[in-house]
Design brief:
The structure holds two protein chains of two kinds.
Chain A lengths: L27 E3 L7 E2 H20 L10 H20 L8 H16 L15 H22 L1 H9 L9 H47 L8 H38 L4
Antiparallel strand pairs in A: 1-2
Chain B lengths: L11 H29 L4 H28 L2
Helix pairs in contact in B: 1-2
Classes of the chains: A mainly alpha, B mainly alpha.
């Protein structure tokens, strides 16, 4: 009976095998061999995006002044981002960016939470394409809005030549500002989300595969399966927190970047 | 020359350990200071909390780059 518990991460002889990055490269499932070949992760992404769209469409299909049922939930979902991210970081300017930021937050949350959803068990955002795409869009949004608000040369000047320092310092400051504003911002957005999701998944696989290997081991080692399982369980709860927190941080940083790009003073 | 000890396994684990020291201390100081501020001025909680998360995001990036590097340079 116990052999049924052995996860994929175990080696064929039943011994323990540590999880590797191979976890994040599952085989193709449909349209194999064509450019549209899809892995498990792509299908999960389509499913979650569909579920999320369906939820918001149902919630606001017939909006009423006094909300009831699903509309209540939908309004709570929007209010959460509006109050905690947009009002905090953008203030009055936030109205224009609310649709973008709110849909980004909930899409990121849906992509992160699959890491702990039963039968899925792999965060969609733990492959680099997803965080990178979100970061590129955020980069485009804050740059385009900055250029629109201040004009191209003024925007570059505001970002690359911070006022109030003697001119020789610009030789040092300007390249640093260029790298940190235009290159490192999207890069750190990507890596922060990707690495958090990757690390979370590897931790869960490590604890649960250790649990089953220990359970199948001979002798008194068996009892160490219990703390291993408890740790895995605790980290599953922790991953829910991380899924929300990373979506929040990604959205908040995007909002802060938009704010700093569109205002005169930093 | 005779070898007295031999290291086997992956050195990347040590690299990640080193990369985690700085951000660990940094996040500790950051959250501690933010809590101090909140305790002194509870009405400023929301601003402090937002800025605390921002600071954590920047500090944490270093440790995460260390983690990714561990996988990249196997």
């Amino acid at each position: 009976m116990l052999t049924a518990l052995v996860p994929m991460a175990s080696s064929p002889d039943g011994g323990f095998k540590a999880p590797t990055v191979g976890e994040f490269f599952p085989g193709e499932l449909i349209f194999i061999g064509t450019p549209f070949a899809m892995t498990r992760i792509n299908l999960m992404g389509l499913l979650m995006a569909g579920v999320l769209s369906l939820f918001f469409v149902v919630a606001f299909a017939k909006p009423k002044l006094v909300p009831s049922g699903v509309q209540n939930l939908g309004e709570m979902a929007i209010d959460l981002v509006q109050k905690n991210v947009i009002d905090e970081a953008l203030g009055d300017k936030g109205k224009k960016y609310a649709p973008y930021l709110i849909s980004m937050f909930w899409l990121l949350f849906a992509f992160n939470i699959t890491g702990i959803l039963p039968t899925m068990h792999l965060a969609i955002s733990s492959v680099i394409a997803i965080p990178l795409m979100f970061a590129v869009i955020a980069w485009l949004v804050f740059n385009i809005q900055g250029v629109r608000a201040l004009g191209f040369f003024h925007y570059l000047k505001a970002n690359l030549f911070p006022p109030g320092i003697p001119w020789p310092i610009y030789i040092l400051v300007t390249p640093i500002e260029f790298v940190s504003t235009f290159l490192l911002r999207p890069l750190t957005l990507t890596i922060r989300l990707l690495a958090n999701m990757m690390a979370g998944h590897l931790l869960l696989v490590l604890f649960f595969s250790a649990t089953s290997s220990l359970l199948l081991a001979d002798g008194f080692v068996k009892i160490f399966a219990i703390p291993s399982f408890l740790m895995g369980f605790a980290f599953t709860l922790f991953e829910i927190l991380i899924a929300v927190l990373q979506a929040y941080i990604f959205t908040l940083l995007t909002a802060v970047y938009i704010d700093s790009a569109t205002s005169e003073e930093h | 020359m005779e070898l007295f000890a031999e290291i086997s396994g992956n050195v990347n684990a040590i690299g990640y350990g080193l990369a985690a020291i700085g951000p660990g201390i940094g996040i500790g100081i950051l959250v501690g200071k933010a809590l101090e501020g909140i305790a002194r001025q509870p009405e400023a909680t929301s601003v402090l909390r937002t800025n605390m998360f921002l600071g954590i995001a920047f500090t944490e990036a270093l440790a995460l780059i260390g983690l990714v590097a561990g996988f990249l340079f196997v």
